[in-house]
User: Fold these one by one.
Assistant:
Number 1:
Amino acid sequence: MSLVIVGTVAFDAIETPFGKTDKILGGAATFISMAAAKLYDQVKVISVIGGDFPDEYITLLNDQGVQTEGIKKIPEGKTFFWSGKYHIDMNTRDTLITELNVLADFDPQVPASYNDCTYLMLGNLTPSIQKKVINQLPVRPKLIVMDTMNFWMNTAMDDLKDVLTMVDVLTINDEEARQLSNEYSLVKAARKILSMGPKFLIIKKGDHGALLFHEDKVFFAPAMPLEEVFDPTGAGDTFAGGFIGFLAKTDDISFDNMKRAIIFGSAMASFAVEKFGTEALQELKNGTLYNRVQQFLSLVKFDIILSE
Ligand code: AMP
């Protein structure tokens, strides 16, 4: 049994109101796998990197408990590069640069050692690559979770809708949910998106928490109110990693367990934003994570006696 994660392993350059970085380690699969590996010990990544990607970063992932046999290196190519700038409210950002580089021609090959995949996380990358990975697995995983973003809605909407018919859970942010459904109301958007394929939909709302939709049920998890938000990059991916890592660990895909998984995802994401890039995740220990999950419980727990 294992959790396979497909997504970008990348260089990011980030600017926030609190500072600026040169090229640092980033990418959807990087954040997802590092977060998931805090909770589950069989985490395997599929991605592509160029000859410019330092070996130390692969060692770092391995030290975090992430298996990297499925990360293909193209020595003559350049690694995917993304650059973004955040505004003062930190919930909105501008993408300044997206250089696909080696991602443009990536033809994923799932290693035989990944054939025991029970949980599949399709992190943000080209929808046609997400589909190729699903089709290469000998047995359909117990759960397929997919993430995507507006970039792919703008450049590959048909492929994206095709992959949507093959997955169980979709995680996107509120702006993307509106773009995908053409609806402003998130409740109407959810209804439309649930008719496109996925049985569960998670809408991430940055520091306003996350909503889980399934059939006619809705669950809401807040985000932890934090004193310092330094860099939101990767928060959504870290959330997804915590979510699917928890499901793989507990091996229970019921709606009730997904509620718990969302709290773990939110707790995990609350650390990611406290430092630049993957720094906070690298340092995160399980005890600290469980303490924050506990804080989440007190944040939302209240007693009330209702009388007419
Ligand atoms: P998040 O902040 O969770 O939305 O994820 C940010 C991460 O997504 C960064 O580390 C980027 O490298 C990666 N990323 C940005 N744009 C794309 C894209 N079009 N496809 C795949 N990954 C991307």
Note: Residues 2-300 form a domain with the UDP-N-acetylmuramoyl-L-alanine:D-glutamate ligase fold (CATH 3.40.1190.20).
Number 2:
Amino acid sequence: MVKFSHFVLLLLFGGAMTVEVQRPRGVPLSKRQFYEEDKPFTCLDGSRTIPFDRVNDDYCDCPDGSDEPGTAACPNGNFHCTNAGFRPAFIPSSRVNDGICDCCDTTDEYNSGADCQNTCRELGRKEKEELQKIAEIAKEGFMLKKQLIQEAKQGLEDKKAKLGDVQDSKKDLEAKVEALRTVKETAEQPEKEAKERHLKAWEDQKAVIRMEKDKARMAAVFLELDDDADGSVSVAELQSHSELDPDSDGSFTESEAQGLLGGVEKVDTVAFETVWNNIKEKYVSENQPNADVPPAGESPQEETRDTVSDNDSENYPDEDIPEEEDDEDEEEDDEMDEEDYKAPPAMQTDEKTKDDDEEGPMPPYDQETQALIDGAQKARDEFNEAEKALREVEDQIRNLEKEISFDFGPSSEFAYLYSQCYELTTGEYVYRLCPFNRVSQKPKFGGSETSLGTWGKWAGPEDNIYSVMKYEHGTGCWQGPNRSTIVKLTCGKETVVTSTSEPSRCEYLMEFISPAICQEPASFDSGHPDHEEL
Ligand code: MAN
């Protein structure tokens, strides 16, 4: 009979004696008071009241299925297995007597003929072992945590002491930097003046060189134009140089040529000087490409050099003038001598640029200027070095202050994670967690690292805020949010990342084990689930 099948159980388990509590089949202990044998039964949803003999009569009367806790009659009913020795459970009442053993105490199959074995004690034993293991880990983890707290305390004191020292050395360095700044500035003023003097002398010298070159070229052009060698350049002679045509209209007329000659028929060398400016820009040598006057390094320059040497001290040695051009061509032809050394025709229209280059590099500084430069440079180096040391000390202070004020948990138990990194390699990526700093992901087979977020905050639930870390503002996700990572901490003896996943795109989840999260274990007695409901 189904109707009044009551449990009558007597179990001895885990040293505790348990006694039977009578109630209809499938009813949990917590609801026993609603099923009183000598009173009508009111459906648990209050919808109707029925005589008690309709409870578990294999006919569904209550819409919530509460009149058939021990049969499969109601589609929405729940069957309660006591599972003595293990853990009570509810199963959908459709599974009652369906031939499959669902409850470890076999009570769901009381009328199906299924050959169920009671496995509750075995399950209970296994669970107990599991719980014991967890408790053991928690215990050891908690011991480690206590150690970590001690170390963090010591570490904090050390850091505070270090901060004091570094702050003192910062003061010393600041004074040093200021003193060296004065030394540097004092040395730089005469250095600047001496360099300016030297530059000015070089500028003046270059102007002289250019002028001499221009003169030499003028003389050579005069000779070239004076075809009949009568000592003057005539209108006709000038006309032979069509490139000089002022309006470049294709006809270089007599009057145009005369205009260039200052309105006269011909000019001698002296008068040529006064009209040279009208000619020199456009003039193209007849002896192109080799004989335009004066290509770099040609004889006029030689003269120039002599002039320079005459005019000046050894400060401006001869070699300085053509040196740069030598350098440029050296690679092409080491054998090239000065005779071969001609400016390419293209450069002739670009007289200015050519001239700028022709004077070569600035001559070396005289001894006195060089000594001032060396002195100032030494002062600069010393100043820079002191400034660098000051910056380093300031960095150190910033880092120490940051570390000292960081929230490393209620007793600084998480401080040991600072400046550490932990990796986990999956099929595709190497994940890296650097606590309180950043999380990243790097493809295993090459490719650049992607930031999955930088330290944001502790983000656990209110009553356990230190159980979750949040890293945010990582690399932007294509058409998505910036990457971010949640790190869930669980208690363990080791410090290790145990898993990573991406529950939604670009939002990562890491499981991280650390002793710092272990709680003081509740005193462990039987290790068995507290209440054994019968
Ligand atoms: C990369 C990785 C993945 C991420 C996609 C999003 O492939 O960072 O984790 O889902 O980008 O485009």
Note: Residues 1-17, 290-355, 526-534 have pLDDT under 50 and may be disordered.
Number 3:
Amino acid sequence: MSLEELMQIAIEAREKAYVPYSHFAVGAAILCTDGSFYVGANVENASYPLCMCAERNAVYSAMMDGKTIDDFEALCVAADSTGPVSPCGACRQVLSELFPKNKPIMLGNLKGETKLTNVEELLPFAFDETDL
Ligand code: THU
């Protein structure tokens, strides 16, 4: 599957978002080496800090199906943002531990603008287990 096709799946995943507070739907899709893919969308809560981002829901969904970092090939994230959507700091930290450092991460928006990046670029000098 191409990154463009994975991006389309991330865009469609936005339909699963539960965003009564921000009205900002985000979708994410992770491609695995066996060709399977997992989606995530953001799920909000009246207790705002409990909101969960699309990227983390996608990673956790894949892991709950038995996938690990070694299975992940690519990640796409999409929102109706001005430019390609920028993952939040919490998601960058989680991805830095659970997603391969150099595998493609494509950020996008509904205008078709994209930015290709990776974990290393999104969170240089990340806090990790070696800091503990
Ligand atoms: N959001 C994501 O799902 N991913 C990001 O990386 C950026 C922010 C969500 C969280 C919240 O539900 C909404 O976007 C507005 O911040």
Note: Residues 19, 22, 24, 26, 42, 44, 51, 53-55, 87-88, 91 surround tetrahydrodeoxyuridine (CB under 6 Å).
Number 4:
Amino acid sequence: MRRLAMLGVVALSGCTAAPTGTAAREWRGAERKAMAGRVREEFRHAWEGYKRYAWGHDELKPLSREAHDWYSRPLLITPVDALDTLLLLGDREEAERTRAYIVENLSFDKDISVKNFEITIRVLGGLLSASQMMSDPRLLALADDLGRRLLPVFDSPTGMPYVYVNLKTGETSGAESNPAEIGTLLLEFGTLARLTGKSVYYDKAKHALTRLFERRSPIGLVGEVIDVESGRWVSPSSHVGARIDSYYEYLLKCWRLFDDEECGRMWRESIAALNRHVADETPTGLWYGPVDMTSGRRTAREFGALEAFFPAVLALAGDLDRARRLQDSAFSMWSAAGVEPDGFDYVAMRATHPAYPLRPEIVESAWSLHRATGDPRYLDMGRVFFDAIVTHCRTEAGYAVLEDVNTKRQGDLMPSYFLAETLKYFHLLFAPQDDIDPEKVVFTTEAHPLRRTW
Ligand code: DMJ
């Protein structure tokens, strides 16, 4: 099985994906429609579970059938994160009800210290995309109020944001941050600036991004942890996984969404450094694994579910050769245990961090590659991923993370991004939408489509 997985040939639940280099069988229209229908049904199942057991709260605990709030008071994270998925899946009535609830009940006037990055990508991003899709100024007003309360994070000596901010008092904390949390803000803050005419949002987030880029090593790489007060690197590990990942995604996407040439230049320089030092050509395929940011010395041979966003970014940038090969590698990672783990040793081909928290990245990459190539092989892959998730993660009350992909033991959480991202990308893969023009619409790291209306 391990050998088969290494070759990218895998059988799962009776479904196969064509081996690398082999032409996949074309899909019939009805087959694709049926898959899209299954995705809608499962979305409905997960959403109803949230509504029944956790409505008005941040997330669902599907095993104990209780609500989970991130802070002492809820911020409606799941409904805000999932609202544009309801719209994309065509459930307008449910979207209207959800919007009404959000507009009536969501207030950010709360004495709680929140994580700027998570609240930006899930809540600010969700409000912005829904405000555009529903042409609703009330959602934009909520986004503006939230943005204003988040702004104090940028008041550090370097301009790079603190990790936490109190929504009522503006008090900040957490000087040790990382490229993902510093560099994954500009799509949301920039869009807020464009839609409200308040350029401060763009300027602060862009300033943070460039200050971070300026601290790259002489070989063009960033590390994993940085102190935003001193500007010094705390961890020199460089890769495309947790704590760094979406920093690269936003360099490329901010260039595309805002025509910001400086972002384009930073992206081009960064991707050249990544391909030179982080890309790892091995007998098991192409991977991107950790190196030291200064010397480029390889420090581990590890990839994971988060890193699986990278084929999507490569495809968007036009590097289809690397995108395809990396997606094949990611597929072999998925196939080793029948579900991908958060950490994977790509020499031994086994999990190092065995959890699967319902992540979307590998599905996003299948969608992005299918959109770029039209190759039905990515539909096959999508079906393999979907069937496995339904088989192993479905519960009576919704969907559950896996604590261990080897044993398939479930854990008690349905993260909001499962509805915002994972199921959305499945649906887009099987039921593409003509009105999502890649030249005009950019998906945030949380899969919120932002439209270039300016
Ligand atoms: C999401 O919240 C976002 O995609 C983020 O950029 C990374 N982690 C999760 C999904 O895995």
Note: DSSP finds 16 helices and 23 strands in the chain.
